[in-house]
Protein backbone atom coordinates (compact mmCIF):
# COMPACT_ATOMS: atom_id res chain seq x y z
CA UNK A 1 0.00 0.00 0.00
CA UNK A 2 2.78 2.44 0.86
CA UNK A 3 4.34 1.65 -2.48
CA UNK A 4 1.10 2.38 -4.29
CA UNK A 5 0.69 5.73 -2.52
CA UNK A 6 4.32 6.56 -3.20
CA UNK A 7 3.87 5.79 -6.88
CA UNK A 8 0.77 7.97 -7.14
CA UNK A 9 2.47 10.83 -5.31
CA UNK A 10 5.53 10.53 -7.53
CA UNK A 11 3.23 10.53 -10.54
CA UNK A 12 2.02 14.04 -9.71
CA UNK A 13 5.49 15.31 -10.49
CA UNK A 14 5.74 13.87 -14.01
CA UNK A 15 3.68 14.57 -17.12
CA UNK A 16 0.56 12.42 -17.29
CA UNK A 17 1.61 10.76 -20.52
CA UNK A 18 4.72 9.14 -19.09
CA UNK A 19 2.75 8.20 -15.99
CA UNK A 20 0.25 6.35 -18.17
CA UNK A 21 3.08 4.70 -20.07
CA UNK A 22 4.55 3.54 -16.78
CA UNK A 23 1.28 1.97 -15.72
CA UNK A 24 0.85 0.27 -19.10
CA UNK A 25 4.42 -0.93 -18.82
CA UNK A 26 3.74 -2.79 -15.60
CA UNK A 27 0.53 -4.38 -16.86
CA UNK A 28 1.45 -5.27 -20.40
CA UNK A 29 5.04 -6.45 -20.34
CA UNK A 30 5.28 -10.05 -19.11
CA UNK A 31 7.85 -10.88 -16.44
CA UNK A 32 10.37 -13.56 -17.40
CA UNK A 33 12.12 -15.18 -14.46
CA UNK A 34 15.57 -16.53 -15.31
CA UNK A 35 17.08 -19.07 -12.96
CA UNK A 36 20.83 -19.61 -13.36
CA UNK A 37 21.41 -23.06 -11.85
CA UNK A 38 23.54 -23.66 -8.75
CA UNK A 39 25.82 -21.00 -7.19
CA UNK A 40 27.93 -20.37 -4.10
CA UNK A 41 28.83 -23.62 -2.35
CA UNK A 42 27.02 -25.59 -5.05
CA UNK A 43 29.19 -25.62 -8.20
CA UNK A 44 26.86 -27.91 -10.19
CA UNK A 45 28.55 -30.10 -12.79
CA UNK A 46 32.32 -29.76 -13.15
CA UNK A 47 34.01 -30.26 -16.51
CA UNK A 48 37.09 -32.53 -16.72
CA UNK A 49 39.31 -29.42 -16.78
CA UNK A 50 37.62 -27.91 -13.72
CA UNK A 51 35.16 -25.43 -15.27
CA UNK A 52 32.13 -25.15 -13.02
CA UNK A 53 28.53 -25.16 -14.24
CA UNK A 54 27.48 -22.37 -11.83
CA UNK A 55 29.66 -19.80 -13.65
CA UNK A 56 28.41 -20.72 -17.12
CA UNK A 57 24.76 -20.62 -16.04
CA UNK A 58 25.19 -17.17 -14.47
CA UNK A 59 27.01 -15.66 -17.47
CA UNK A 60 24.43 -17.14 -19.84
CA UNK A 61 21.49 -15.83 -17.82
CA UNK A 62 22.95 -12.32 -17.52
CA UNK A 63 23.51 -12.25 -21.28
CA UNK A 64 19.99 -13.55 -21.93
CA UNK A 65 18.57 -10.86 -19.65
CA UNK A 66 20.27 -8.20 -21.77
CA UNK A 67 18.96 -9.76 -24.99
CA UNK A 68 15.39 -10.01 -23.66
CA UNK A 69 15.39 -6.46 -22.30
CA UNK A 70 16.68 -5.16 -25.62
CA UNK A 71 13.43 -6.28 -27.28
CA UNK A 72 11.48 -3.85 -25.08
CA UNK A 73 8.80 -6.53 -24.71
CA UNK A 74 9.64 -8.03 -21.33
CA UNK A 75 10.56 -7.36 -17.76
CA UNK A 76 13.26 -9.75 -16.58
CA UNK A 77 14.01 -10.94 -13.06
CA UNK A 78 16.65 -13.41 -11.92
CA UNK A 79 16.78 -15.81 -8.99
CA UNK A 80 20.44 -14.84 -8.57
CA UNK A 81 22.73 -12.26 -10.18
CA UNK A 82 25.96 -13.27 -8.46
CA UNK A 83 27.80 -16.34 -7.23
CA UNK A 84 25.58 -17.14 -4.28
CA UNK A 85 23.73 -20.23 -3.08
CA UNK A 86 19.94 -19.95 -3.36
CA UNK A 87 17.91 -22.97 -2.16
CA UNK A 88 15.56 -24.42 -4.80
CA UNK A 89 12.37 -23.65 -2.80
CA UNK A 90 13.37 -19.96 -2.70
CA UNK A 91 13.83 -19.90 -6.49
CA UNK A 92 10.34 -21.26 -7.03
CA UNK A 93 8.68 -19.02 -4.43
CA UNK A 94 10.50 -15.98 -5.87
CA UNK A 95 8.89 -16.61 -9.27
CA UNK A 96 5.48 -17.15 -7.68
CA UNK A 97 5.75 -14.02 -5.52
CA UNK A 98 6.61 -11.89 -8.55
CA UNK A 99 3.82 -13.47 -10.61
CA UNK A 100 6.21 -14.44 -13.38
CA UNK A 101 4.73 -15.29 -16.78
CA UNK A 102 7.53 -17.72 -17.60
CA UNK A 103 10.25 -19.45 -15.61
CA UNK A 104 13.41 -20.61 -17.36
CA UNK A 105 15.97 -22.56 -15.37
CA UNK A 106 19.39 -22.69 -17.04
CA UNK A 107 21.84 -25.56 -16.57
CA UNK A 108 24.63 -27.56 -18.21
CA UNK A 109 24.37 -31.31 -18.61
CA UNK A 110 26.90 -33.95 -17.68
CA UNK A 111 26.43 -37.31 -19.32
CA UNK A 112 28.19 -40.66 -18.84
CA UNK A 113 29.32 -40.73 -22.49
CA UNK A 114 31.67 -37.89 -23.49
CA UNK A 115 30.60 -38.29 -27.14
CA UNK A 116 27.08 -37.11 -26.39
CA UNK A 117 26.61 -33.42 -26.93
CA UNK A 118 23.90 -30.85 -27.42
CA UNK A 119 21.23 -28.95 -25.58
CA UNK A 120 17.94 -30.38 -24.31
CA UNK A 121 14.82 -28.87 -22.80
CA UNK A 122 12.98 -30.40 -19.87
CA UNK A 123 9.40 -30.05 -18.76
CA UNK A 124 7.93 -31.31 -15.50
CA UNK A 125 6.66 -34.86 -15.23
CA UNK A 126 6.42 -37.30 -12.37
CA UNK A 127 7.55 -40.01 -14.78
CA UNK A 128 10.97 -39.30 -16.27
CA UNK A 129 11.18 -39.66 -20.05
CA UNK A 130 14.33 -41.80 -19.81
CA UNK A 131 16.86 -43.10 -17.28
CA UNK A 132 19.34 -40.28 -17.97
CA UNK A 133 16.61 -37.72 -17.35
CA UNK A 134 15.72 -39.38 -14.05
CA UNK A 135 19.37 -39.32 -12.96
CA UNK A 136 19.76 -35.74 -14.01
CA UNK A 137 16.69 -34.63 -12.02
CA UNK A 138 18.10 -36.46 -9.02
CA UNK A 139 21.40 -34.58 -9.39
CA UNK A 140 19.76 -31.21 -9.96
CA UNK A 141 17.44 -31.81 -6.97
CA UNK A 142 20.43 -32.70 -4.82
CA UNK A 143 20.27 -29.46 -2.91
CA UNK A 144 16.52 -29.90 -2.43
CA UNK A 145 16.60 -30.20 1.34
CA UNK A 146 13.09 -29.14 2.21
CA UNK A 147 11.58 -26.03 3.70
CA UNK A 148 8.85 -25.31 1.17
CA UNK A 149 5.64 -27.13 0.42
CA UNK A 150 6.33 -26.63 -3.28
CA UNK A 151 9.93 -27.41 -4.05
CA UNK A 152 11.25 -29.03 -0.91
CA UNK A 153 8.89 -31.97 -0.95
CA UNK A 154 9.38 -35.65 -0.23
CA UNK A 155 9.46 -37.83 -3.37
CA UNK A 156 5.87 -38.93 -2.74
CA UNK A 157 4.60 -35.39 -2.25
CA UNK A 158 6.68 -34.23 -5.23
CA UNK A 159 4.80 -36.70 -7.43
CA UNK A 160 1.48 -35.34 -6.22
CA UNK A 161 2.61 -31.76 -6.78
CA UNK A 162 3.75 -32.59 -10.30
CA UNK A 163 0.32 -34.02 -11.03
CA UNK A 164 -1.30 -30.81 -9.75
CA UNK A 165 0.34 -28.73 -12.44
CA UNK A 166 -2.57 -27.16 -14.23
CA UNK A 167 -3.35 -28.12 -17.79
CA UNK A 168 -2.76 -24.55 -18.95
CA UNK A 169 0.63 -24.46 -17.24
CA UNK A 170 1.61 -27.79 -18.76
CA UNK A 171 0.61 -26.68 -22.26
CA UNK A 172 2.59 -23.45 -21.77
CA UNK A 173 5.69 -25.29 -20.56
CA UNK A 174 5.59 -27.72 -23.47
CA UNK A 175 4.97 -24.92 -25.93
CA UNK A 176 8.06 -23.04 -24.70
CA UNK A 177 10.15 -26.23 -24.80
CA UNK A 178 9.10 -26.79 -28.43
CA UNK A 179 9.81 -23.17 -29.33
CA UNK A 180 13.33 -23.37 -27.88
CA UNK A 181 14.07 -26.60 -29.76
CA UNK A 182 12.77 -25.17 -33.01
CA UNK A 183 14.81 -22.02 -32.53
CA UNK A 184 17.99 -23.99 -31.76
CA UNK A 185 17.66 -26.50 -34.61
CA UNK A 186 20.47 -26.12 -37.13
CA UNK A 187 22.09 -23.33 -35.08
CA UNK A 188 22.76 -24.63 -31.55
CA UNK A 189 23.57 -28.37 -31.23
CA UNK A 190 20.75 -30.48 -29.75
CA UNK A 191 20.80 -33.93 -28.19
CA UNK A 192 19.21 -36.56 -30.47
CA UNK A 193 16.02 -36.54 -28.39
CA UNK A 194 16.03 -33.01 -27.02
CA UNK A 195 12.59 -32.72 -25.37
CA UNK A 196 12.74 -34.69 -22.16
CA UNK A 197 10.84 -34.67 -18.90
CA UNK A 198 11.52 -35.40 -15.25
CA UNK A 199 10.46 -34.31 -11.81
CA UNK A 200 12.70 -31.29 -11.27
CA UNK A 201 12.08 -29.49 -7.97
CA UNK A 202 12.62 -26.13 -9.59
CA UNK A 203 9.76 -26.71 -12.07
CA UNK A 204 7.13 -27.52 -9.46
CA UNK A 205 5.23 -24.25 -9.29
CA UNK A 206 1.86 -25.46 -10.59
CA UNK A 207 0.87 -22.05 -11.95
CA UNK A 208 3.87 -20.78 -13.96
CA UNK A 209 4.85 -22.28 -17.33
CA UNK A 210 8.40 -23.46 -16.72
CA UNK A 211 11.17 -25.29 -18.52
CA UNK A 212 14.67 -26.31 -17.60
CA UNK A 213 17.21 -25.81 -20.35
CA UNK A 214 20.34 -27.93 -20.37
CA UNK A 215 22.45 -25.69 -22.62
CA UNK A 216 24.96 -28.39 -23.52
CA UNK A 217 27.14 -31.10 -21.97
CA UNK A 218 30.15 -30.15 -19.88
CA UNK A 219 31.35 -33.72 -20.36
CA UNK A 220 31.78 -33.09 -24.10
CA UNK A 221 34.87 -31.04 -25.06
CA UNK A 222 33.16 -29.35 -28.03
CA UNK A 223 30.15 -28.36 -25.96
CA UNK A 224 32.34 -27.13 -23.13
CA UNK A 225 34.25 -24.92 -25.56
CA UNK A 226 30.97 -23.60 -26.95
CA UNK A 227 29.55 -22.87 -23.50
CA UNK A 228 32.70 -20.99 -22.49
CA UNK A 229 32.64 -18.82 -25.60
CA UNK A 230 30.88 -15.42 -25.18
CA UNK A 231 30.22 -15.44 -28.94
CA UNK A 232 28.41 -18.77 -28.81
CA UNK A 233 26.55 -17.83 -25.66
CA UNK A 234 25.37 -14.64 -27.39
CA UNK A 235 24.07 -16.76 -30.27
CA UNK A 236 22.25 -19.00 -27.81
CA UNK A 237 20.75 -15.97 -26.01
CA UNK A 238 19.53 -14.63 -29.34
CA UNK A 239 17.87 -17.96 -30.20
CA UNK A 240 16.21 -18.24 -26.76
CA UNK A 241 14.92 -14.69 -27.19
CA UNK A 242 13.41 -15.63 -30.56
CA UNK A 243 11.80 -18.67 -28.94
CA UNK A 244 10.29 -16.54 -26.17
CA UNK A 245 9.00 -14.05 -28.76
CA UNK A 246 7.41 -16.97 -30.60
CA UNK A 247 5.88 -18.23 -27.37
CA UNK A 248 4.21 -14.91 -26.63
CA UNK A 249 3.22 -14.34 -30.27
CA UNK A 250 1.41 -17.65 -30.48
CA UNK A 251 0.68 -19.64 -27.39
CA UNK A 252 0.15 -16.80 -24.92
CA UNK A 253 -2.28 -15.07 -27.28
CA UNK A 254 -4.27 -18.28 -27.70
CA UNK A 255 -4.31 -18.67 -23.97
CA UNK A 256 -5.70 -15.18 -23.48
CA UNK A 257 -8.28 -15.77 -26.20
CA UNK A 258 -9.29 -19.09 -24.65
ZN1 LIG B 1 22.62 -28.05 -13.13
Helices and strands, with pairings:
Elements: H1 2-11, H2 16-28, E1 31-36, H3 53-70, E2 75-78, H4 88-97, E3 102-109, E4 119-124, H5 131-140, H6 155-164, H7 167-184, E5 190-198, E6 210-217, H8 221-228, H9 230-249, H10 251-257
Parallel strand pairs: 1-2, 1-3, 3-6, 4-5
Antiparallel strand pairs: 4-6
Zinc ion binds at residues 37-38, 44-45, 53, 107, 140.
Key structural traits:
alpha/beta, 258 residues, disordered N terminus, Aminopeptidase, binds zinc ion, 10 helices, globular
What is this structure, in a nutshell?
The protein is of the alpha/beta class and 258 residues long. Helices cover 48% and strands 16% of the residues. The protein has a six-stranded mixed β-sheet with strand order 2-1-3-6-4-5, with helices on both faces.
Account of the protein in words:
It is a single chain. This protein is an alpha/beta fold and 258 residues long. The protein has one domain (30-257): Zn-dependent exopeptidases (Aminopeptidase), CATH 3.40.630.40. The protein contains 10 helices and 6 strands, in the order ααβαβαββαααββααα. The chain has helices at residues 2-11, 16-28, 53-70, 88-97, 131-140, 155-164, 167-184, 221-228, 230-249, 251-257; strands spanning 31-36, 75-78, 102-109, 119-124, 190-198, 210-217. A 6-stranded mixed sheet has the order 2-1-3-6-4-5, with helices on both faces. Helix 3 (53-70) links the parallel strand 1 and strand 2. Helix 3 crosses helix 9. It is globular. The two termini are 33 Å apart. The model is unreliable at 1-24 and 145-150 (pLDDT under 50). The site of zinc ion has 7 residues, from loops.
Amino acid sequence: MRLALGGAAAGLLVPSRSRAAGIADIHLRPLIMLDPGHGGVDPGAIAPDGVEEKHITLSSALELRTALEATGRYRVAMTRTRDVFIPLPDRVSDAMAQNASLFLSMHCDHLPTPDLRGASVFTLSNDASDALAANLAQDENGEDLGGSPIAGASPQVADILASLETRATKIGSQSLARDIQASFRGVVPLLPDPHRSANFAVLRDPSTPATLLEMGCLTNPLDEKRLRSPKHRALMAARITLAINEYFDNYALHRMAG
